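Assemble and predict.
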Amino acid sequence: MRFRGRVRVMPRAGLLDPQGHAVEQALGALGFISVRQVRVGRTLEIALEADSEQQVRERLREMCERLVANPVTEDFSIDAVEALS
Amino acid sequence: MKIAVVRFPGSNRDLDAYHTARAAGHEARLVWHRSTDLEGADVVVLPGGFSYGDYLRPGAIARFSPVMRAVAWHAEAGRPVLGICNGFQILCEAHLLPGALVRNEGLAFVARMVTVRVESDATLFTAGYRVGQELSFPIAHGDGRYVADQATLDRLEYEGRVIFRYTHGNPNGAMRDIAGITNEGRNVLGLMPHPESAADALVGSSDGATMFALAAVPAGV
């Protein structure tokens, strides 16, 4: 079966996120004065063949640990897994 | 001394390292990243550049290049490995050095001369310098901010493994002003500044020539 998983990688909490800070300042300059914090990460959509959703989650976790996220600076989460057709 | 300069797709300081190594009297050779051996090299240099376009994170994809297995064996055997700029990022991603290099604090790409202080002469690459000596090297990076957790930083300091520190200003927000570190075995050195591009007074500094002289590296290591 083919699945699609969505993986989110965010800068580790507590680590300075200069990109998020720059976006935060720009939003404030645009008049979005209610903005308190912005953090910038990345999302990957990975389509893969697997037998079950659980297997998809296991594979995605392994991909994140080995390549997609850097454990020194980033945290990852598997946000969604959906079956395709 | 035989020096292998690894060339990844996107390396752009490979020829600087190659020429500086040759100018220092070594037999230098460029090794393509698909190669699975280092052709009998005594010293390996991972040069600066933007391997794989810095996709995902700088060094994240290059660390899985076939040649990196040979580089890891070379390092684990206690033989000298020098990672400059992108090479330092690759060594961190490959876990041959601790910590990581992330986006500069000021977000901008910084290309200018910096001053670093030699914190330790107890590596094969810095034996020709004096502790406390200040060196002038160029930097050219967008992701040069060295980070690690507090325990790792404390351990690096305690073991004398911070080898270069920015002085007279920190260009990227690196924790504890760290510009270069070594591994436990003290045979792997990573640094963000470019000694290979500062090896001739004609270009404004020849402070890097000492590092490439490799006088402390025993023949046939």
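The interface with chain B takes residues 11, 15-16, 18-19, 22, 67-68, 70, 72-73 of chain A (CB under 8 Å).
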